[in-house]
Specification:
By secondary structure, the chain is mainly beta. It is built from two helices and 21 strands. The strands form four sheets. Strands 1, 2, 9, 10, 11, 13, 14, 16, 20 and 21 form a ten-stranded antiparallel beta sheet that branches. Strands 3, 4, 5, 8, 17, 18 and 19 form a seven-stranded mixed beta sheet that branches.
Length: 288
């Protein structure tokens, strides 16, 4: 009986769902340091402030107004102007009502922006990218073609105080057309198909197959709040452009950030990979 020249073991090609890992890799490098003399890190002081004011890419355009209690950390939006518990109202004469901020309440005006704070690349999980081919002949090599396909992936996670969750706010933060504050050369926000046909030459008595690791990029974004005015009441309204006497106009919380992960693409806007050819000597089961 003549052995079958080739036996192809059918495997499911992981074309679309390669999992990402390593968002906390030590290889992360800071792209734009935030040690700006005009900004302060609120981490550990007002942990709820930035995640609420700059929620999921919000308040990027125009001026937003907030009321914040520096003692209780209670936060309200502009609809609370003139209302309790933020304000006390007093009769100010005919047709006039005076509104004064209550103790510990601050009126905060400004807007959010979302600069990149760091970026790094890594190799995604390896997946089988061809069927294993066993050359069961004792003669020369087995030559045949393999078609490979893939679709790029995009993932966003949000981290607040060490707690990681998924986020659907992709476009608001990472989409350049919606005003992202940084440039990038990757496939974020796009679903890009890819395929190619490659030749394999399997020596006699061997089983070989291709694996591939997609090259992925992570961009980390720390939301900032630019302070137009900071108002409090102490015998009268007082307004500053700095946060509570700290001398800063840009507020950031380095425990609050978004990681956008997507495939690195080449000049043709196709995903890039590291391909690995695996092989071993045939086992009895490969050819019977």
């Amino acid at each position: 009986m003549v052995p079958t020249p080739v036996k192809k073991w059918l495997l499911t090609v992981a074309a679309c769902g390669l999992a990402f890992s390593g968002l906390g890799l030590a290889s992360a490098t800071t792209a734009s340091a935030t040690g700006n003399g005009n900004e302060t890190d609120l981490n550990g002081k007002w942990d709820n402030l930035l995640p609420n004011i700059c929620q999921d890419g919000s308040n990027r355009k125009g001026q937003s107004v907030w009321y914040y209690n520096i003692a209780t950390h209670e936060l309200h939006d502009r609809s609370y102007y003139g209302k309790a518990p933020v304000y006390s109202s007093q009769y100010g004469g005919p047709r006039t009502t005076l509104h004064t901020l209550n103790p510990n309440w601050r009126e905060i005006k400004g807007h959010c922006y979302y600069p990149e704070s760091s970026s790094w690349t890594y190799e995604g999980a390896e997946a089988a990218w061809s069927e294993p081919a066993s050359n069961c002949d004792s003669g020369g090599p087995l030559n045949y073609n393999v078609t490979q396909s893939y679709t790029t992936t995009t993932t966003t996670t949000k981290t607040v105080g060490g707690s990681v969750s998924g986020s659907r706010a992709v476009g608001k933060i990472f989409d350049l057309s919606l005003g992202a504050e940084f440039e990038y050369s990757w496939s974020y926000g796009k679903s890009e198909g890819w395929s190619r046909t490659v030749g394999m030459s399997v020596p006699a008595g061997r089983t070989e197959w291709f694996g591939a690791r997609p090259i992925m990029r992570v961009v980390r974004v720390n939301p900032h709040f630019w302070l137009d005015s900071y108002t409090w009441y102490a015998g009268g309204n007082h307004t500053s452009q700095n946060w509570g006497g700290y001398g800063y106009r840009a507020l950031v919380d380095h425990d609050y950030y978004y990681d956008g992960t997507a495939n690195v693409t080449n000049s043709s806007n196709k995903p890039t990979f590291r391909f690995i050819l695996h092989g071993r000597a045939n086992k009895w089961s490969d050819c019977h």
